[in-house]
Amino acid sequence: MEFIKQGSTERDKVGMYFTTIGIAFLSLVVGQLFTEALAVSFLGYSLMNVPEGADLNLTLSLLLIPFGFVLMGVVLSIKYLHKRPVISVFTSRESFDWKRFFTAFFSWGGIMSLFLIISIISGSPIEWNLDWSTFIPLILISLFLIPIQTTAEEVLFRGYLFQGFGFVFKKGWVSILLTGILFGLLHGANPEVAKLGNLLLLFYIGTGVFMALISHMDDGIELSMGYHAVNNIFASLIVTNDWQAFHTNAMFIDHSEPVFGLESFLTVLVLQPLLILFFSKVYRWHNWKDKILK
Predict the structure, then answer these.
(1) How many domains in the chain?
(2) Long-range contacts for 24-27 (Cβ within 8 Å, ≥24 apart)?
C-alpha cells in the first residue's frame, strides 16, 4: 500500500485525527510546563527568557525534552486509538530502512560541511569555538535528544498529518502543500524569524514541501528524517550563532549579521531540487504525475 494511503483504513476516522492532533498539542504543552518548572526550580530562570551566562547545554536539553512528549503522544494514539501498526506512520516498507536514513543524513551533512569550509576559506567571520568541557556533553545531547525532536516533527507532519490529508483530500499534492505550509508556520515563533522577518517563513515552507515531496515519492519518511536530523545536529554541534533557535557551545560560531541571503535561496532553489534528483535516481522514482496529482 502507498504510504499516503496507510492512514485510510476502516478504523481511521476524521474525528480520530482531530483527537490525536489535540493529544499531540496537549503533550507539547505538558512537556513545556514540565521543563519550564525544572528550569525555574533548579536553574533559576525561565526558558522564555534565558539570561546571559546560562548553561547552554542544560537549556538546550530542556528545550528539546517536550518533543519526546509529542512523539509519545502520537505513537500511542496510532497504536491504541487508530489501532494500526506504529511503523505505518514511518514507512510503507515492512521495517524502517536505515540505509535510506543515512543516505540522506550523510548527503546533506556533506553538503553543509562543504559550504562551511568554503565560508571559512572565503573569510566569513566564523570563529573556532571549541571547548571540550562543554562540547562533549553537547555531542551526547545532539546525538540523542535532537533526533527525538526531529523524529517527533517528521512523524507528526510527514507521517501522521500527511496521511490524514491524504485520507480527506485523496490528492498527493494537497498533502505535500498543506503539510509544508503548516511546517513553515510552526517555525514562526523561532528567534531567527524575529531577526530576519517573515520572509524566512518561505524558506521553512519550501523545506517542508521538499521533505513532504521526497517522503511521498519514496513512500516513507526515512529520507526526510535523515535530512532533518543532520540539519539540526549540524546547527547544534558544528556551527552556531547567537540569534538562531539553537544557540549552543558548537565547534564554530558565526558572527555574521543576521540576513536572509544567498545561502537560503540556494538551499531551496538549487540544493534541495538537486537532492530530489539524486534520490529519484538512486531509488528509481517513477510515475511522478500519477503519484502527485492523483
Answers:
(1) 1
(2) 24/70, 24/73, 24/74, 24/77, 24/156, 26/73, 27/66, 27/69, 27/70, 27/72, 27/73, 27/74
